[in-house]
Design a protein that fits this description.
With about 500 residues, the chain is mainly β. It contains 3 helices and 29 strands. The strands form 5 sheets. Strands 1, 2, 4, 7, 8, 9, 10, 13, 14 and 15 form a 10-stranded mixed sheet that branches. The radius of gyration is 25 Å and the shape is globular.
Length: about 500
């Protein structure tokens, strides 16, 4: 009791002490043409977006007239190895847009010949791209200083894209439509990225503001440079994930956001002949069909539906050898579950190093439990009859809701037949943004057939909170409880946690 009271009192004092400073981020005034960037005393930046009369020719050459007419952004700041130092190589960037897309282009000067550059990866979304020389951008399209889209590429054109939620949950399985072209010149390499507005979500209207961070990596020097200053404790690779420290992008006149209505019907047929069956099967035709749908209710609230889902086109998991006593958690790759996946993360604890801190926090919702059942010889597919999802934000409240019904399925192995009963899965996640980088939330889950006892239902109730102060202090915790009708005891989990991570020393 004393520990809980002390923790609550400390949290209250900290909340009161920083509430005034933790509201809206103060950004420098927008630059007036011909200037493209302004900075304040703390080197925080506001960038002017350049409106184009006609689309860029995406060829990596940077030879259009706009590059001679408009000044580049060139005063980047080194994060590592010299924190807040001048970069060793010059980087120039432009942010432009037209009625269809936003363009992020760069000229990366390099004093070394090309054979000394680190560029050896062309596969999309491979972590090795982060270990290459690269140039990229993070776009906080709702200017909430918490969530963003990340795009970057290396000199070969190998690219990576991901979404970041609450500065702590990355989703690299998100694969939007966008284009990138790179080139070379005497003294470095160039890059042009075109990101269609249809591929991202945003608030439409004139003179909109986004958050923006630009990063360049020079890997042979282990050098990372960014548009705004970042704590060295984050390391160079994690600068995109400190969205609250990003610059402001001003002057965006954005077209009406698309409702993004998508329908993906499918039809499939199977013909089976089995002469050894009793009775024999001869050319038995088994047709099947289904459909997936997506609808943008608002700019930041999306509904997904699925009927008789077919996951045959899903990317195959990488084979892994597990020599531990713990199960491997493979990432979710099915499109229906990907959008807004970060909303369902529970008790994610951001650190100054970026990303979620590693803890023993339980995973309350693991979507791969739906439609896949572990059999004696590996995963077995369980048919999904119908499913609905709702994900997004309403103001400062993040909402995630899932309801899925799976069908009954019989499996036969070594002459033994087992039945997976028809099961309903329901999840509700609500999270409220408070202060500048903090949130509180709750989660409810229901499974009509428990794994522990198929004759019983299972429910989970949970609440979590994270309070992040200044650049290096986070305090939070969670409480969760699960119940199954025929199981009693050892059914709750809770934690209180604090982390102080400045540049040199820290404590947990």
């Amino acid at each position: 009791m004393r520990l809980r009271s002390t923790f609550a009192a400390t949290l209250l004092v900290l909340t009161c002490a920083v509430s005034a400073a933790a509201g809206q981020v103060q950004a420098p005034p927008a630059p007036v043409a011909p200037e493209v960037i302004t900075r304040d005393a703390g080197r925080q930046a506001t960038v002017r977006a350049i409106k184009l009369d006609q689309p860029l020719t995406l060829d990596g050459r940077l030879d259009e007239q706009v590059y001679q007419r408009e000044k580049p952004i060139s005063d980047f700041i080194q994060t590592m190895p010299g924190n807040n130092a001048e970069p060793s190589e010059r980087t120039e960037a432009w942010i432009m847009f037209d009625d269809q897309a936003i363009y992020v282009t760069g000229r990366c000067w390099d004093s070394a010949p090309p054979d000394q550059w680190v560029a050896n990866e062309l596969r999309r979304d491979q972590g090795q791209i982060r270990q290459n020389d690269h140039f990229g951008v993070m776009l906080d399209t709702f200017y909430d200083r918490r969530n963003g889209y990340v795009f970057y590429a290396n000199p070969l054109g190998g690219r990576m894209d991901l979404t970041e939620a609450d500065e702590s949950n990355s989703n690299s399985d998100w694969n939007p439509v966008w284009n990138v072209r790179t080139g070379r010149f005497e003294g470095g390499w160039t890059i042009e990225m075109r990101i269609p507005f249809r591929s991202i979500r945003y608030t439409s209207g004139d003179d909109q503001k986004w958050g923006i961070q630009i990063r360049r990596s020079i890997r042979r020097k282990n050098e990372w440079v960014h548009l705004t200053p970042l704590p060295i404790a984050m390391g160079g690779a994690q600068g995109f994930f400190r969205i609250s420290a990003a610059a402001t992008l001003a002057g965006l006149d954005l077209p009406p956001a698309s409702r993004n209505i998508e329908l993906k019907p499918y039809g499939i047929s199977r013909i089976t002949t089995d002469r050894l069956a009793n009775p024999a099967i001869n050319n038995d035709v088994q047709p099947d069909w289904g459909v997936d749908g997506k609808y943008g209710i608002t700019a930041n609230l999306t509904a997904d539906i699925t009927y008789n889902t077919d996951f045959a086109q899903v990317e195959v998991d990488e084979q892994q050898v597990n020599l531990t006593r713990f199960s491997i958690q493979f990432p979710e790759k099915r499109d229906f579950f990907l959008e807004g996946r970060g909303i369902f993360a529970f008790a994610s604890f951001p650190t100054t190093q970026g990303g979620a801190s590693t803890t023993n926090t339980p995973v309350l919702f693991y979507s791969r439990r739906i439609g896949l059942e572990q059999g004696p010889r590996g995963p077995l597919v369980v048919p999904i009859d119908v499913g609905e999802r709702l994900t997004g934000k309403v103001g400062r409240v993040s909402i995630g809701a899932v309801n899925i019904q799976t069908d009954e399925r019989e499996f036969t192995n070594a002459g033994t037949t087992t039945v997976t009963p028809s099961t309903n899965f329901s999840v509700l996640r609500v999270k409220r943004d408070i202060l500048r980088r903090s949130n509180i939330g709750m989660m409810l889950t229901n499974r009509s057939r428990s794994v522990a006892d198929p004759t019983s239902t299972n429910q989970t109730y949970a609440a979590d909170s994270v309070f992040s102060f200044f650049n290096n202090l986070s305090v939070g915790g969670y409480y969760s409880k699960t119940q199954t009708e025929t199981k009693k005891g050892e059914d709750d989990s809770y934690q209180a946690r604090a982390e102080f991570s400045p540049d040199r020393y820290g404590a947990q």
